[in-house]
Structures are given as C-alpha cells and as structure tokens.
Amino acid sequence: MSARRPHPKSKSGCTDCKRRRVKCDERRPRCDNCRKRNVLCSYSVFDLTPKLPTTSPSRDVRLGSYIRVFSSRQREPPGSVFGHGLLSDDVRNGLVRQISDSELPRMAKILQYFAETTIPTLTSRAEAQAAWRSALPNLATRYNFVTHGMLATAALHLTCLDPDEEDLETYGTIAAIQLNIGMVHYRSEVQDVTTANAEALFAFSTMVTMFVLRTAGDECRATLDLMTSPASPRTHSSTSISDLTHTVCRIFRSLRGVLVILVPCWEQIQGGLLQSVVRRDWWPQPIPVTLMEIENDEKLRKLEKLWSHPGKSYEYSSDTLRYALKGLREAFALVSRLIDLAHCESASEPTSFDWTSIIHWPVALPLEFLTLLEQRQVEAWVLVAHYAILPGKITDIWWLKGWAVQFIAIAALVIGENNWEWIAWPAAAVGFDLDSLRNDTNTPVCKQIPTAQGT
C-alpha cells in the first residue's frame, strides 16, 4: 500500500473559522466564510497592518476602492447642523494628512453621522454631548488617532442599521481599517500618559470601549447560537465555553483600561474639555431608598453566602468577592436612583438617565476578580450574572445591545446546571430561559454551592 501523502496541518485562520472548526481561506481583510455569513472577521479587527491600496507615496493612507460610504437610497444628513463642530476646516485639514482629497467628502459624511447619531449613544446628557462635539475637533487636529477612532466607531454603528450585504461589508471594512490605524498610534502614545495627551487618549479609549463591546457581543452571540444549534457537535462545548470566558474577561479588562489614563491625569481631564463628560458630582448617593431597591439589595447581600457559610474555610479570594459584591450593591442602588431621578416629575430640570453608570461596576473591579473569572470560579460568575440585570435596563444602545442575556447565558454555562438556582433571579429579570441551555449543550459539572434558599 502506498504511503499517504503528507498533508501540512495549519492552526491559522480567523477566530470565527477556528471556533467553528472549518477551513479558513485566510483572505484579508475578510475571509470568504465570514463574508458569506455576514459577520465581522477577526482579520479585519485585529490585523494591525491592513493591506491598503496605495496610489501615491506622498499619502500615509489611502482607502481607495475599500470605501463606498453611503448607498444611493440612504438619506444624507443636513450639512448645516454641526457646521463648526466635527466638519470644521481644522478637522478636514487633519484628515487630509491621511486621506486623499477625493475621499474627504465621504469621510466627512461619516464624521457627520458620528456627530448626529453616534455621539448621542455615548451619553444621554445634552451638556455631555455638547462637550464631545466641542472637544473632539480640537483633539483630532492634534492627535490623528482621535479622527480614526471617530471614523471607526461611526462606520461600525452604520453596520447596525441592517444594511444590505454590500454595505455591511463596506462599513465593516472601514471600521476595522480605521480602528487598526488608530490603535497603532494610540498604543505608542499611551506608553507615556501626560496632561497634554490625556484627553485625547481618554476620548479614543471611550470609542474603543464601544467598539469592543459591540464586536465582542457579536462574537459571543455567534458562539452561543452555534452551541445551541442541533447540528453543533456537543463535544465542542468545553472549547466554546473557554472562548466565551476569555471574551468576557477581555471586555472587562478593556473597560478597566481607561484607569491607566484617568488615575494619573484625573485633575486635567475633569477640569478640561471633557469635564461635562467625566464629572459625576451630580450623581445621587448609591443608597437604596424605595421598597424595591431595598428588596433587591437584600437579595444581593445574601450572595455572600456563596463564600461565607458554615463548613467553608476562609480563602483570600473571599476578600476580592466581598469587595466586588459591595461595588455591585452600590451600582444597583446608583442605577436605580438615577432612573428614578430621570423619571421624577418634581425635578426642577428634566434629567435623562445616565446609562454610563451601568459600566461603572466593571471599570472599578480589581484585577484579582478578573483572575477569578478566568479561573471560572463559580462565585465570581454568579456575581457577573447578577450584574447582567443592569445592562438589561438599556435596550436601545447599539453597543450594549444583547449583553444582558449573553452575560446570563455565559455565566450559566460556566457554573453548571447544579448551581443555576443561584442565578434564577437575574435570568428571570432579563427574560432568559435557562432551560434553553439544559438540553442543547453539555454544561460542565462544577462544585455544588450550598442551596441559595431565601435569595
């Protein structure tokens, strides 16, 4: 019998193809499988040296045929709304250093979309939106990565408008290329955070947070859909759960990354161009007041029984969990107080709900807690499941969409069916049926935590 011809094995391929265990053609910036499935390819997002068509060595970057920003059927935004904001001559002059004159009108349309439609999803408060619109042109003229961040975020936002396949690919490609270019300069600048560059770094970090939450959310949703598909091999569950765990940890680490900028340069930022964005002195005290707030706080307080009960020996991780739980209780009270304040008819001035309060808890988490998540400690993931109630209160923010259900589903897969009683309340609160995971996936058998009776 003739010997079988050796076949070179390759572990390369985009993230989605490797997760689905299918052959990837490794085409950049988007492999053929991802193009057919209408998902954002990891080659687009994480290829920091994208292959861009160039026509002149005098330009740093050319987008050429990669760009076809608005299809003919789309409404073009009015040109006078933000005349001296993001479409100012200063910003246009900043862009011309990277983009050809022929592409400037198209890029201007994306910037205007950012000003009109994307900025209101950064914050609900009018004064904070005005601060963004005023500060970003100033910062973009000094730091090119800010411009790339705006273009990337707005282009990604456009992919959420249910465009046709061609537009989806166009917007996704623009978003990925612009983010990658911006990241190269940002990573260099963030090595030396100063009072001069802190505001620009904070602005770009905020846009990266939106980008990561949206793209990671799509990634998790695709993995969960695959796991619960009848055609999915159940033997792949362990690998998929590991991928989901790493994705959530990556999100939390990304959210905490802003501390590298805020902590050393807080005085500069809170007194500078973005002071209306970062100052929270108007927030109420995070103390439960209403009957429902008190009841919810009591449910959260009882979670301490997870690591503090008869027969359970003391572990250093208990201090980390206790700190995280304290912060979670405060986050619940704060969000509830802000919602109540926004709906208060007797307020002297109308106030909109500040949904940035929802990401306050993960930003403040200690690194030790993220280590517990990476180690798949049941107690830590139960806290994440309860945190999911907070993003569940927001349904119309494109970069937070779907995360409530996904946090619950991932936590349920990590802790195993024998501990689902601990997350019954948050699952019900966000409308997620735990039974949808019971028969379709192989959930791991984890250590049994004593009954959550009374929680």
UniProtKB/TrEMBL annotation:
Record-linked Pfam families: Zn_clus
Any GO molecular function: zinc ion binding
Gene3D superfamilies linked: Zn(2)-C6 fungal-type DNA-binding domain
Entry keyword Kinase: no
InterPro entries named in the record: Sterol_Uptake_Regulator, Zn2-C6_fun-type_DNA-bd_sf, Zn2Cys6_DnaBD
Signal sequence region: none
Residue ranges crossing the lipid bilayer per the database entry: none
SUPFAM superfamilies: Zn2/Cys6 DNA-binding domain
Keywords of this entry: Nucleus
Matches recorded under CDD domains: GAL4
Annotated source species: Plenodomus tracheiphilus IPT5
Limits of the Zn(2)-C6 fungal-type domain: 13-43
The protein's name in its UniProt record: Zn(2)-C6 fungal-type domain-containing protein
Ranges in coiled-coil conformation: none
